[in-house]
Amino acid sequence: MVCTMQPPSQPTSQQQWQESDFELLVSHLPASWEQDARSHKAFQRARKVRSPRDLLRLVLTCAGSGLSLQRAAETAESSGMPAMSKVAVWGRMQAVGEWLARLIGEMLSRHVVCPAVAGYHPRVMDASRVAGPGCRAELRLHYSVSLTSLCCTDLVITDGRVAESFANFSAGQDDLLLGDRIYARAKPIAAVRRAGAEVLVRLGRTSLTLYDEQGAKLDWLGWCRALPDAGPAQRFAQFRDETGAWISGRVCAVRLNEAQAQRARKRCVKQAKRRGTRTRPRTLEAAGYVCLFTTAPQERLPLDMVCALYRARWQIELSFKRLKSLLRAGELRQVTQRSALIWLRGKMLYALLLEACLQQAGAFSPR
Fold it and tell me: What strand order describes the sheet that includes 138-146?
């Protein structure tokens, strides 16, 4: 969809379609979105930008459609708005940050919970670095996708220094949070359990210290050496939270075939070279297994379901690919941290609006 400014008094057929597209996007916003623009001081005066609707068009043109400030100003003028300089557009954009955050929060709160899988609502978490020209501005987009609806359920934008963690997301009763190795940390997992949710994470060699039933440190890599050549296996495991309390779970692992193991080891060596470090022998050995840890009990989440859900984790990689390739969310054009944050919020609002339109389209039966 192309977001353009207010059409002239005698709109062309193309402009009528563009106006229809904009109205479709607006229909998915909360009812109070125009009042919110005033209460969050995004819209305070009607000079050149005459209403919150025109302001939203300007935001979606700059951030959503990806036009530069100069091109956005030209598009605004050609669509019937008073002439604006790129500096004037930049000034308007500087005031919309809190308003965009409010709209994003409202849209995420309206997320429809799809039917559960084994009694859980599986959500995949990941994060992606977003940098500006010459890396003068750097942000991190923390993103959550439902595996049942493939829609965004949560997103947080931070600076590049905030680490990936379950602590960046909300967790509710019967949620099942999935993450890769970097999410296998004791304190955030413990917080998820206190919220009534469960986790499913991939284990790194040193990411999470686990213990057996007697409280002895568990060498899960040594246990993996005895795995059969085909089929997964599991065993009891537990860890201590920051208060010293035990949190129990299961280690679930499967041995990769030789071709898969070789590819995994090559990736380890390549990543080590990129960091300027050497790959340790145990790291190369661990690359021959997929080893998972989950707090979900066996009665509710059997071993085969654990493996199947984690295999579906790649859906969030596709989400990032769509955001960065189709919407160009990975190409910050702003060089200051504040401008970059506002731009990325506008881009994420646009992505959520398009997602809502796709969900609505899927609800109609074809004729």
Answer: 152-159, 138-146, 121-131, 175-179, 198-202, 289-294, 246-255, 233-240
Q: Which of 147, 113, 199, 119 is nearest to 312 (CA)?
A: 147
Alpha helices per DSSP H over 42-158: 52-59, 69-78, 86-93, 97-109
CB 25 within 8 A of CB 353: yes
Distance CA 98, CA 249 (A): 40
Strands (E), 28-174: 121-131, 138-146, 152-159
Q: Label residue 145 by pLDDT band (50, 70, 90).
A: very high
- The torsion defined by the Cα of 359, 363, 364 and 365, in degrees rounded to 10, comes to 130
pLDDT over threshold 90, residue 364: no
Q: pLDDT tens digits for 326-351?
A: 888 888 877 788 889 999 999 999 99
User: Is the per-residue pLDDT at 14 higher than 50?
Assistant: no
Spatial distance between the Cα atoms of 270 and 267, rounded to a whole number of angstroms: 5
Neighbours of 147 (CB within 10 A): 20
Give CA 138 to chain center in angstroms: 16
For the entire predicted model, the pTM comes to: 0.86
CA distances for 307 relative to 84, 89, 192, 263, angstroms? 56, 50, 21, 20
